[in-house]
Amino acid sequence: MSLRELARRLHVSASLVSQIEIGRIQPSVRTLYAIVSELGLSLDEIFELVGSAEMRVPASPPRPGSAPAGIRSSGALVRRSDHGAIGCEPGVRWERMAAWGDPGVEFVIAVYGPGGGSTADGDATRDHGREFGLVLSGMLSVTVDCEDHLLGPGDSITFSSSVPHRLHNQGEIEARAFWVTVGRHGPERDRT
Fold first, then answer.
1. Considering 87, 140, 147, 158, which has the largest number of Cβ atoms within 10 A of its Cβ?
2. Residue 26, C-beta contacts closer than 8 angstroms, at least 6 positions apart
3. Would you tell me how many other CB atoms lie within 10 Å of the CB of residue 143?
């Protein structure tokens, strides 16, 4: 797929895709999810590619339940020092939680710096699947279908990703949350 074709499918400019590809800018959460979905990748595969000089797109997405390359089917250990991170704009970072490789289930620690959000202020996103979040520290505002929720440590939320939503940190300290998305790819995709 050409860069221009990918940009067309994502409804963004080819220049934006090029700038992301060469590392000049970081994508928004919405754009990162769109790229991952369009290329048939899991977030875990993106974590594997971060820092790689060469990005290889698999011929077909991994089968749900299959272990990624180098991971035994009996399980995989990811040490805290090996979490890896993906930076998104504005002020958002995803840290790897598990070496999973199943595009049907994604685990991340979502970190929102002061003023950071999944979309621009007043904007929302829609995806496929279902989201589950648990705030670990700080305060995280979650807007779901125009309803605002302020979550603190220990608070959790779940919602259909197809409902317009936005995550943002209006506070002055970093907010960290354990975030799981189920069914963004694969057979569960249409059951939101």
1. 140
2. 20, 87, 88, 89
3. 18
- Structural domains in the chain, CATH included, are 3-56+77-190 (2.60.120.10)
3 state DSSP class of 127: coil
Which has the closest alpha carbon to 93: 174, 17, 190? 174
User: What is the amino acid identity at position 180?
Assistant: V
- Tell me the two tokens of residue 131: 């989201």
Query: pLDDT of the chain along its 192 residues, tens only?
Result: 888 888 888 888 888 888 888 778 777 777 777 787 788 776 666 666 554 433 333 333 444 444 444 444 456 666 766 666 676 766 888 887 766 666 678 888 899 999 998 888 878 888 888 999 999 999 999 999 999 999 999 999 999 999 999 999 999 999 999 998 888 764 433 333
As beta bridge partners, residue 178 has 109, 134
Spatial distance between the Cα atoms of 185 and 104, rounded to a whole number of angstroms = 5
Residue whose pair of structure tokens reads 């979502």 in the numeric block: 110
Instruction: Report the C-alpha gap between 120 and 137 in whole angstroms.
Output: 22
Q: Is the peptide bond before 153 cis (omega within 30 degrees of 0)?
A: no
Type of residue found at 12: V
Burial degree of 165 (CB within 10 A; 0-12, 13-18, 19+): buried
Q: For residue 64, what are its two tokens?
A: 């749900």
